[in-house]
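@channel sequence for tomorrow's demo:
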Amino acid sequence: MLIQIFLTLILMLVYFTVFYNVGIPLSKLIGRRVCVTCYSVSLTWLTLLALQYSGIFAINKYLIAVLIAQSAVGISNLSEEFIVINQVRVSQTLLKFGTILYGTFAVLTYSFVLEVAGLVLVIPLMYLGILSMVPVNETSPITTRSKELLIKLKNCCG
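structure tokens (generated this afternoon):
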């Protein structure tokens, strides 16, 4: 188990370093701001899943579940950005709490019921995260509130 933990930490460090260095060009390529922490955590658990299901390296599913839960919390923290970017009329508190509840349900399903079902439940959560990413395109209509969100994201994630 200790080797799995070190592997996880090394993967996170490598992904963090890569995204920290290529974040701006990548942002321009995909048209959305890149949150170094979000990408690092997500790619770490995706890599661990690939290692697990390919049979290359056995990974404890609870270790993966912790990382998926971190992604769920990160996505819930993007609720304000989602509301502004997508111009939806929903309470930020409701969206944030709903995201946490849904993420918890997905992680618990993955951990204790059926792994595949839990991973299928994670897909809408990741989609919400993608929809919450702040656009890079300066020609899009940017309100004062979304400018504040851009500054907040830059301060948070480099």
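heads up for whoever presents: The helical segments are 2-30, 36-54, 61-76, 79-86, 92-113, 115-131, 144-157.
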